[in-house]
UniProtKB/TrEMBL annotation:
Database matches in Pfam families: AraC_binding (PF02311), HTH_18 (PF12833)
Listed SUPFAM superfamilies: Homeodomain-like, Regulatory protein AraC
Record has Aminoacyl-tRNA synthetase as a keyword: no
Domain HTH araC/xylS-type: from-to ranges: 187-285
Identification of the protein by name: Helix-turn-helix domain-containing protein
PANTHER family associated with the record: ARAC-FAMILY TRANSCRIPTIONAL REGULATOR (PTHR43280), TRANSCRIPTIONAL REGULATORY PROTEIN (PTHR43280:SF32)
């Protein structure tokens, strides 16, 4: 069974095993006058690409975005993407793992989850500048490495994600406390899905993990994204299948087995029902 290529933060950026890994690079220097092209892969770290000036395309979990000025991409560990960034683009590429930055307090942790749930945000110039100034500070701290710089970077990341949520908020975002609770529990549900989807596919299993009733979990998903919990689970299964079909040469039977399906015929019927393609046809049409 072939696995999806996984990229890691370069060892040179590792401060120590206890502090985790962190990197921030200037995009102009990274490009060095040439286009950048990365084929489908995933990371084991958070990925933030902030472009003051940019052109190209970025496909995140098979959703294609046209890169533009004053835009920010945030990816969670495990998401599959491919990036084509044109020469002349300017900004910062920041990467960090969950050892370096993963708030233990509930509120900051929920902010990170909420921010990283929005993979792409195109901002007004004034709003973007405010966020970009925070990344500039992070870059300066990381370059100078003065006493306490890691604490400064972590504190600035707290502010960055608060501001990102503020600036990227859509007109239909929910603001009531009850809706805020539902959004937080939705993020918990999605995080559990990313970890357990190969072995657990029933709504009752996730409701038990979250200490909720079936009714409560379905109410949460319907209130936040307008879908029953089972539909969200099925979408995650299909997403995982697409990742392996397009990012690896693995045979369908091996992908089915990895996703927890002993009966390949059932898996093929399930995939066709939700995509209108057989797995092989999907691979041939979209790779």
């Amino acid at each position: 069974m072939n696995t999806i290529p996984i990229r890691h933060i370069a060892a040179a950026t590792k401060e120590s095993s206890s502090l985790g890994r962190f990197s921030i690079r200037d995009v102009s220097g990274l490009l060095n006058g040439s286009d950048l092209s990365h084929d489908l892969h995933k990371h084991d770290f958070f990925f933030v690409l902030a472009l003051q000036k940019g052109a190209g395309t970025h496909e995140v979990d098979f959703i294609r975005y046209n890169i533009s000025d004053d835009s920010i991409f945030i990816l969670r560990p495990g998401q599959v993407h491919q990036l084509h960034l044109n020469a002349g683009s300017q900004g910062f590429l920041m990467e960090f793992d969950t050892t370096f930055y993963h708030p233990s307090d509930n509120q900051p942790n929920q902010r990170l989850k909420k921010a990283s749930a929005k993979n792409f945000c195109e901002l007004e110039t004034a709003r973007f500048k405010k966020l970009f100034s925070l990344l500039t500070l992070v870059s300066e701290e990381f370059t100078s490495k003065q006493e306490g710089y890691i604490e400064v970077i972590r504190a600035t990341l707290d502010i960055f994600f608060i501001e990102f949520i503020r600036q990227s908020r859509g007109s239909q975002d929910l603001t009531k406390k009850t809706n805020s609770y539902a959004q937080e529990r939705l993020e918990d549900f999605l995080e559990l899905l990313s970890v357990h989807i190969t072995s657990q596919k029933q709504v009752s299993q996730y409701a038990e993990l979250m200490r909720l009733s079936l009714y409560q979990l379905n109410a949460i998903t319907k209130a936040t994204i307008g879908k029953p919990a089972l539909e969200v689970i099925n979408e995650q299964i299909i997403l995982e299948a697409k990742r392996y079909l397009l990012a690896t040469p693995s045979q369908v039977k091996d992908i089915a087995d990895r996703l927890g399906y002993e009966d390949i015929s059932y898996f093929i019927r399930f995939f066709r029902k939700h995509t209108s393609y057989s797995p092989e046809a999907f691979r041939q049409n979209f790779k």
